[in-house]
């Protein structure tokens, strides 16, 4: 398995208006088939009010591409700020709990290509939490040319180490076992079986790719799902980064960073980076 997969155009694209009290006016559901294997998948997109900047918000483990709109705490903390700035919004399902595996990277490439061709997109801010924040970091380290800024809240940066953490903690928290299973499913085995692939998708070992973009990390020190040590290691490796901000929430759990506005740290500083 490799991340050098097809990044051709999306297949069987269709757009459908999304209606309902939780959804902003103009929201569309984009249904498509992956250029990698024809997998049917979907994303939601809201065209920008002005300009050509899009914000990509990837969901957490167990959620889907509508999480920004249907999970109340994230909706209240993030959506008003995103809408106020007038960005286009892309919230992909991206193969579900895929943890930015190689096919998910190729699908993200194709989604960005679609937004460039069909909607005139020129810049992409990635702002997400949990698995989504981890996916932001992975994609930015693999495709830095496609990412102009990143906010990652409660994320991980070393896949192999995190897989071990999940296996060790599965008896305490069953969701950790589910995450380890998902990693093995989407990465073709354990880190012992696929060491190069796990390392290639671990941003901790590719910090040089992140140096050209504003980057914000936030983590709760009492996070039992994704240990703060992951963000601390990445923050240490990025100590010489010129536009990097790291914020810890003392005693905060896994969801604590989700109450921060990522635009406050990233979007408003991007123009001066």
TrEMBL record:
It comes from the Bacteria. Residues 53-238 form the BD-FAE-like domain. Signal peptide: none annotated. Gene3D superfamilies: alpha/beta hydrolase. This is Pimeloyl-ACP methyl ester carboxylesterase. It comes from Oligosphaera ethanolica.
């Amino acid at each position: 398995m490799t991340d050098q997969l097809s990044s051709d155009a999306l297949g069987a694209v269709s757009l459908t208006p999304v209606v309902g009290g939780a959804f902003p006016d103009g929201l569309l559901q984009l249904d498509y088939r992956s250029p990698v294997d024809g997998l049917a998948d979907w994303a939601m997109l809201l065209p920008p009010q002005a300009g050509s900047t899009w914000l990509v918000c990837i969901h957490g483990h167990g959620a889907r591409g509508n999480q920004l709109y249907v999970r109340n705490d994230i909706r209240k903390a993030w959506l008003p700020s995103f809408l106020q700035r007038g960005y286009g919004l892309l919230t992909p399902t991206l193969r579900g709990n895929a943890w930015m595996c190689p096919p998910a990277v190729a699908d993200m490439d194709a989604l960005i290509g679609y937004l460039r061709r069909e909607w005139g997109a020129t810049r992409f801010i990635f702002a997400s939490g949990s698995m989504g924040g981890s996916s932001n970091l992975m994609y930015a380290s693999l495709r830095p040319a496609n990412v102009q800024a990143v906010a990652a809240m409660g994320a991980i940066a070393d896949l192999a180490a995190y897989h071990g953490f999940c296996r060790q903690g599965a008896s305490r928290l069953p969701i950790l076992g589910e995450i380890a299973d998902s990693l093995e499913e989407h990465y073709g085995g354990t880190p012992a079986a696929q060491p190069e692939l796990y390392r290639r998708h671990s941003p901790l070992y590719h910090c040089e790719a992140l140096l050209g973009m504003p980057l914000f990390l936030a983590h709760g020190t009492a996070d039992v799902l994704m240990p703060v040590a992951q963000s601390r290691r990445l923050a240490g490796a990025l100590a010489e980064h010129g536009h990097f901000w790291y914020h810890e929430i003392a005693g905060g759990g896994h969801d604590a960073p989700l109450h921060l506005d990522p635009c406050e740290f990233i979007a408003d500083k991007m123009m001066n980076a």
